[in-house]
Amino acid sequence: MKQKIFATAFLTLFLLSLTMPTISANETLLFIRVEPSYRSIKAGEAAIYSIKVESLTRFPQIVTLSIEGLPENAIGIFTPERGRIPFRSKLTIITTIQTPAGTYELTIIAISGDEEIEAKTALIVNPPEAIITSTSTTQIITKEKTLYANVQTDKTVYNQNETVKISGSVQDQFRAPVASVEVSIQVVNPLGNVVHSALITTNNLGIYFDNFTIGELGYSIFIPGVYTVFVTASKEGYIDGYAHTSFVVGEANTPSINFVSINITDLNGEVRSEFTQGEALIIWVTVENYGTTLEKAYIWIEVDDPNGAPLGVYFNIGDLEYGKAKTVGFSFTISANAYKGVYLIKAFVSNDLISRGGEFLASTDSVFMVN
To answer: Looking at residue 60, what DSSP letter applies?
Structure first.
């Protein structure tokens, strides 16, 4: 009887192996799912979608999410905007009464390495039931048009002759993708020398890709240690956006710190991106280190209001150990008379207080809405 069960199970696995695709060592096979297939709301309301990102491989690379197709006078916020697969995210689309009625096809994009995958959903915006006075309308307009860039590599540690795949996206202050942005990329080795540079233009989804092979310019240039990728995004009419990330070649003798994600929840632990005046929230920051242990690392956040004014700076001190991720929560209470609109969260990691000569080793940002 046991032999019969074993034979049946073996046959089932064999047949499954015939139907499943062959996965090479360098193939990621990302998948993204979004639910539901559509949402119907009135102008001035918010729509929430559930997103799941996964892969057929076990390689847990970082994936960044972006959205295309938002209506005017609306903002789309991913919570979190990036993470290590597999992970789930919540997309909140917040409209105003000025958002035009209509049916909008939304494209959710996941970016990692040299891969760009999409999932489709829809948003139906109906006219508002009543006209709301301007004093109670959420304002999602900021003073200046600003670019926000992000950058990542497909791995955290490389060896000689391996290819480093760089990817990222550029968005405006409403988290909408910006096309035709010039992205300047420079990769600096542990000695501060530039070992790779490129000038890339974002596609119609605000996405860019680049790659280079370690050792292609000579073995001596690519010494072991921590390498930093610096990105500058520029477009006429916008304030430049900046980002950087790091990776290790061989072994490192210094820390290599990167942000994994920023999550925002209420006090009950529910992931949210829209809050009201007087409400409290928790900002969860996850960082990882693939270099040497950084003792007494400072993890910072700064919260800015819709006018760009800092409302508070908070930090946590603790060790960031090699090969480990660390999550820290910061509580923040929105004042009862706070401005309504988009609030910016800036996150940093430094090796000491900046006033004592410390330097920032990693940075990222996220947003939430006060309605």
So the answer is: -
